Amino acid sequence: MTYDLLFALTMFAFVSSITPGPNNLMLMASGANFGFRRTVPHMLGIGIGFTVMVLLVGAGLAQVFMRVPLLYSALKILSVAYLLWLAWKIAHAAPATRGEIAGTPMTFGQAAAFQWVNPKAWTMALTATTVYTPNHTMGAIITVALVFGAVNLPSVSTWTVLGQQMARLLTNARRLVVFNWTMAALLVLSLYPILWPG
Questions:
Q1: Following CA atoms 80, 82, 83, 88 in sequence, which dihedral angle do they give, to the nearest 10 degrees?
Q2: Beta carbons of 179 and 28 less than 8 angstroms apart
Q3: How far apart are CA 43 and CA 48, in angstroms?
Q4: Per-residue b or e along 13-23, where b marks 16 or more CB atoms closer than 10 Å to that residue's CB
Q5: CB contact set of 173 (below 8 Å; sequence gap of 6+)
Q6: How distant, in Å, are the alpha carbons of 55, 94, 118, 131, 196 from that of 81?
Q7: Rounded to whole angstroms, how far apart are CA atoms 50 and 124?
Q8: pLDDT in tens, 83-137
Q9: CA distances to 40, 80, 100, 183 from 178, in Å
């Protein structure tokens, strides 16, 4: 991979990882509701889970969807249903009472598995493995996955920190409820590109 292509890939990985999407909106909500430390498994699940996803998509999973479009349609329906359920869970997250921690943040395994039903993750993985691996060699695919792994974790961590900082403003139950409903609404809005593509 040339230096120019590597630089372009790094910029694509950064921009696509730092911009709003289902992962980042959920991390922001988790940071506000559970704090940074309890959200670390969620962040690691995203970073490592997406890196593995890029490897598998680049190794041939993309061709399966091209040959059997019905599988991709089924995945899209499953993705939308799951994201709507997550939005409902965020909207109805109960604020913690004094001396009690309400709810549980997403686990490492749940976050890693979520990448497979995340429309933005699919778009990123498919774009990265088709545009930035012109020769489609395994070495190039591994490079793409490693670049995303290196760039993704610091990027998603930013959203958790933002949510944690917002928790200072969410000092009463009413504000937290408004925040959670806003995050849920934004998560639903993030489905727009998959439901009504360009």
A1: 120
A2: no
A3: 9
A4: bbebbbeebbb
A5: 95
A6: 26, 22, 11, 29, 15
A7: 9
A8: 787 778 777 765 544 444 456 889 999 999 999 888 788 888 888 888 888 777 8
A9: 24, 23, 20, 9
